[in-house]
Write a structure and sequence with these properties.
239 residues; mainly alpha; 75% helix
Length: 239
């Protein structure tokens, strides 16, 4: 879930400002919260879904290193590929390790995934990146972010976009790695915490927690998107 974006590309009007990734992220988040809430509100459905958790816990307890490795690697993949979601593994992590350790492992995976996305794009180039992420979204922002982009703008970009996009784009333009790593870590901390609490809300059947955390994520992401659009629009107006 690592983890929306916007801005006016050249020649676009205000109604074209929102990236397809922004709409997709909002839609996926709303759909996920709705599905979790429906599943948690049904005792039978919820019971059937969580009935797999004790088996997962037994397997992980038998092979703890492998369990941690799989969890982190899956989280890393979710930060690199739009079609992979951490929602699949988070309830398992919360059930087995609790919220604190699960958050640290999820954050580690997301950061590693972002770093790998950055490295792939920086050292292997655009042809490889085109096979891994949305080319139209990259093209939309390619002329907005250079290796000298302000850190605050990069921070907003990382917070507003699906996590795989900034890593690939900033690697392509050879943005400073350490600044990217800092922006990545700072923005993934609140998203990882929120994702873990979503998982906990589902496992514990606390629907109010699901809805509340989902709303907080929507506000955070929407605010980042709004600020990013304003910054990009202001920059376009000066150019």
């Amino acid at each position: 879930m690592s983890g929306a974006a916007g801005g006016h590309a050249a020649g676009e009007g205000p109604h074209e400002a929102r990236s397809p990734s922004a709409s997709r992220r909002a839609l996926v988040l709303a759909l996920l919260i709705a599905l979790l809430a429906v599943a948690a509100s049904s005792r039978q459905l919820h019971g059937w879904l969580v009935s797999f958790l004790p088996t997962a816990e037994m397997l992980i307890r038998d092979r703890p290193v492998l369990g941690v490795t799989v969890f982190v690697l899956f989280a890393a993949l979710s930060a690199m590929l739009a079609f992979v979601s951490s929602a699949v593994i988070v309830p398992v992590g919360v059930y087995v390790w609790g919220k604190g350790i699960s958050m640290m492992l999820l954050l580690l995976g997301w950061v590693l995934g972002g770093v790998f996305a950055y490295a792939v794009s920086r050292f292997l180039g655009r042809p490889v990146v085109q096979a891994l992420t949305s080319v139209p979204v990259l093209d939309r922002y390619a002329d907005r972010f250079t290796r000298t982009a302000p850190f605050g703008l990069v921070l907003l970009f990382q917070a507003a976009m699906p996590s795989e996009i900034p890593g690939y784009l900033l690697g392509l333009v050879r943005y400073d790695f350490w600044k990217y790593l800092l922006a990545l870590t700072l923005t993934e901390i609140p998203y990882s915490a929120a994702t873990i609490y979503l998982g906990a809300g589902f496992v514990e059947r606390r629907i109010w927690l699901l809805v509340g955390v989902g709303a907080a994520m929507a506000v955070f992401s929407g605010t980042a998107l709004h600020l990013l659009q304003r910054r990009l629009s202001a920059h376009r107006g000066r150019s």
